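=== RUN LOG ===
request id: a7f3
mode: sequence -> structure
chains: 1
length: 443
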Amino acid sequence: MRTRHNEVAPAQYEIAPIYEEINVAVDHNQLLMDLMDRVARRHKLRVLLHEKPFAGVNGSGKHNNWSMGTNTGVNLLSPGKNPGTNLRFLTFFVNTIAAVHKYADVLRASIAHAGNDHRLGANEAPPAIISVFIGEALTNLLDQIAKGKNQDGKEVKRALDLIAKLPNLELDNTDRNRTSPFAFTGNKFEIRAVGSSQNCAGPMAVMNSMMGLQLTEFKADVDKLIAKGEEKDEAILLVLKSYIRRSKAILFEGNNYSDEWKEEAARRGLNNFPTTPEALDVLGNKQAQELYGKSGVMTKVELEAYHSVQLHSYITKLDIEAKSLEEMVQSLVMPAVLRYQKELAENIAAMRAIDMLSSAKLQIELIKRVNTNVEAIHAGMNSLHEAYEKAHHADSLRAEADIFCHAVRPQMEAIRAAVDDLAAIVDDEYWPLVKYRELLFVR
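=== RESULT ===
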């Protein structure tokens, strides 16, 4: 571990492992998750890797730091002090942006699962819209290259002259925009939308595959210009210029949480898939088949199977959650609430018997609040059962996932809201479950 520190939520920690080759890093991450779980159990504790275990409290995710290096250890995304080094940096930097722009929807699909749906778009997590943040200095640089003009607005005859007098880019010129799902942070990119319970292999496989295809395309485009008589460095800059113009829509420096960005993203042609079933639809498209097929990761048949497995996993998780919710409410919450309701009713009746009903305003308001929540839970349970039955009679996995997403889950959330309100007022003596304050601030 390089660092470990407290995060925003109570009992929440962030750890940062030392960087290493990606296959090893993914394996170590899985081993660490398993180790934390087993060690916690030895101490009668639990490690929660769920993306959003507590409503209204910050959730958890992973920042996958990604860069490319040569076989001699040179970081290709590290800016330098001379034109040659910076040309190399710009080549891989711009190609990364171009790849994310082209395959944004596949990258979004790679982080789609039931737990992450609770987190993406919330106040502490990146949104479901994929965009790239690179900071003011690099944004200005790319604008200069795209326009072929220097900072004073003067025309530059040779594109290479633009990077001959660059400011020192070795320093991290970004402002660490925490709302961005994909950000450049000095000498690497961070994919910030990966879920805390997720295996990092999925998004990393997409990242590597799309970069492989992008660099293959880049090489072909440069070779075409060289064949026409362009100098190599000039050809590289001309291709990069076209990529910058083509990928400009994916660059965004503002607040990714805002409603204005959703509207702006739609105008730019960027997709917004807020739920897992919608995000996974891209796996059936030509774009995903091209990415996985050309890179040799998965054939079309394997991709179809993978899509089905992801949908089935999503359905299964929500199915388990719905059944657990129903059992907990019926066998634990409702008996406790009804006992408390009975005590309130008896208290009100006793006050009436001694002609002090006017002094029982608090009890009356409490029993009304309890009754309102009980009715909400009863209605929610009925609607949940209807949606549940409808889902299990759907004619396809995709249709079943859609019902779980848009019918089952909203009813679960409505029931949960009523239960949470009851937990705030029902006496601890009656309440059979651990309350939030006891979970977060250990009693």
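=== NOTES ===
Residues 317-440 form a domain with the Four Helix Bundle (Hemerythrin (Met), subunit A) fold (CATH 1.20.120.1560).
The first strand starts at residue 3 and ends at 6.
=== END ===
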